[in-house]
Amino acid sequence: MARLTTRSALLVLADGRFPAGGHAHSGGAEAAVKAGRIRDAADLEAFCLGRLHTVGLTAAGLAAAAALGLDPYELDAAADARTPSPALRTAARRLGRQLMRAARAAWPDPELDALAAAFPGGAHQPVVLGAAARAAGLGPEDAAHCAAYETVGGPATAVVRLLGLDPYRATAVLARLAPVMDEVAARAATAAHGGVDALPAASAPLLDITAEQHAAWPVRLFAS
Amino acid sequence: MHLDHGHSHHGAVSADAHRPDGTRRALRIGLGGPVGSGKTATVAALCRQLRDTLSLAVVTNDIYTREDAEFLLREAVLPPERIRAVETGACPHTAIRDDISANLEAVEELEDAVGPLDLILVESGGDNLTATFSKGLVDAQVFVIDVAGGDDIPRKGGPGVTTADLLVVNKTDLAPHVGSDLGRMARDAAEQRGELPVAFTSLRSAEGVGPVAEWVRERLAAWTAAPAPTA
């Protein structure tokens, strides 16, 4: 149950410096930049908005459900079913493992230990994120906010690096999207209370397609 | 429910000296340094020199994902299953210092896949003079600079030059051609580093990477001789 005293734990978990491997993933932004679909801050905003309402909502729902304590096996299967791209499934499990390492160091917890033991190859990142939030004493809304923020924070940082985009403009994009993040997180958390079958299953086919192409590039800066 | 005490395969304590089965894990040595100083060539030479007596693996962190791994494969210094490449999201120092999770995954997967290993070399992507490895990732680090990068680099200092467990000054054969004063580099390095060792190498010479290999063997002997880790 989220208490007011856990707000700082949310900041620790959501911090871009939390060492969970996200810095090496662009959320599809590297492929979009190369294809010319992201050239400036306006493009980045459109890209992030699209991510929020699709994969962001889906990830936030999974994270909220995991934070509620729903069955992690069912949630992981639900995440698999919602991730058609094999490259993105691999990336999600890898990131789940990396996040697990950081979460167990930050908030030692028997439930996290059990989840790590149950998924030696890594559970999907949003499922681990929700479990980490739970271990930190956070609630489903917090986990959903964290997932929503990560959905756009990663691409924004990646585009700053890839295009040399003005970091103030990139940060302003995130600030403008904050109300949408709140809305997406609220929808996700509400859905999570309805159980695994009620979780959002929105997807972005172009992100799946470009993720497969990106994984085959011989030269790339980001892991996904 | 399985409760462990921080040394499971997915252990939260990154610098743990033992593996899930309680055995001592491989010694991990990081190699960092500026672009073009000869990190990959040094790694390749070390592999050639050590592979017959030690069980080795390499993790590369090139800014462009697979360049260094492919160089090592092309040179056939190790079988492909002993080389892993880590993507760094255009930030090589982040992957070896601030968020080491991808590199930890890589070293652990290598030990699982081709272990037991004696030694894992973790090569950083080319970076600047401030790049250093986290102690959570490696047990010791080598900083590789070269004489053609300017003989004032040891004087400039910075964390790599000043604190690395071994400073390698590479390409000494080029010194006369680029006007670098090796004596000055040695004096400046000693000033910055105190008792910490410095190796001057020319990978084209007969001695080649010998001094670095010797240092690695000493580190490995110390690692192996250390008291067995307590679980």
Automatic annotation (TrEMBL), chain A:
Cellular compartment(s): Cytoplasm
Subunit structure: UreD, UreF and UreG form a complex that acts as a GTP-hydrolysis-dependent molecular chaperone, activating the urease apoprotein by helping to assemble the nickel containing metallocenter of UreC. The UreE protein probably delivers the nickel.
Primary subcellular site in the record, as a coarse category: cytoplasm
Pfam families per record: UreF
Keywords: Chaperone, Cytoplasm, Nickel insertion
UniProt protein name: Urease accessory protein UreF
Annotated family: Belongs to the UreF family.
Its biological purpose: Required for maturation of urease via the functional incorporation of the urease nickel metallocenter.
Organism: Streptomyces filamentosus (Streptomyces roseosporus)
Gene Ontology CC entries for this record: cytoplasm
PANTHER family membership: UREASE ACCESSORY PROTEIN F
GO MF, any single term: nickel cation binding
Encoding gene, per UniProt annotation: ureF
TrEMBL record, chain B:
GO terms for biological process, alphabetical: urea catabolic process
Gene Ontology CC annotation, any one: cytoplasm
GO molecular function, one term: GTPase activity
Region Disordered, annotated ranges: 1-20
Chain sites annotated for binding GTP: G33, P34, V35, G36, S37, G38, K39, T40
Acyltransferase keyword on record: no
Chief location: cytoplasm
Top-level lineage group: Bacteria
Pfam families per the UniProt record, alphabetical: cobW
Matches recorded under InterPro entries: CobW/HypB/UreG_nucleotide-bd, P-loop_NTPase, UreG
Keywords: Chaperone, Cytoplasm, GTP-binding, Nickel insertion, Nucleotide-binding
Subcellular localization(s) per the UniProt record: Cytoplasm
Domain CobW/HypB/UreG nucleotide-binding: 29-198
Family classification: Belongs to the SIMIBI class G3E GTPase family. UreG subfamily.
Oligomeric and partner information: Homodimer. UreD, UreF and UreG form a complex that acts as a GTP-hydrolysis-dependent molecular chaperone, activating the urease apoprotein by helping to assemble the nickel containing metallocenter of UreC. The UreE protein probably delivers the nickel.
Function, as annotated: Facilitates the functional incorporation of the urease nickel metallocenter. This process requires GTP hydrolysis, probably effectuated by UreG.
Protein's name according to its UniProt entry: Urease accessory protein UreG
Phylogenetic placement of the source organism: Bacteria, Bacillati, Actinomycetota, Actinomycetes, Kitasatosporales
